[in-house]
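Workshop exercise sheet. Pairs work together: one partner reads the sequence aloud, the other fills in the structure field after running the prediction. Swap roles for the next sheet.
Pair: D.N. / O.F.
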Amino acid sequence: MTTIDIAEMPVSEKLKLMEALWDSLCVRQDGGFESPAWHEQALKAAEGDLAAGTAGFVDWVDAKEQLRGHGQA
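Structure field:
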């Protein structure tokens, strides 16, 4: 493995690197990572809200604004 200066890379190369990293993570067969318990609980809660018809959905543009702190929560 080589060390690279990511800050100096053009955006197109950074995107290629990100895709290669995701591809590498997706083919791992040994597990290598276990999701935390809170993640399973959050998914089950979301499934329950969806099944109960109480789930709320937000447009992706609005969600990004909320996450950035620019929108109303």
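Discussion prompt: The chain is about 55% helix and 0% strand. What would you look at next?
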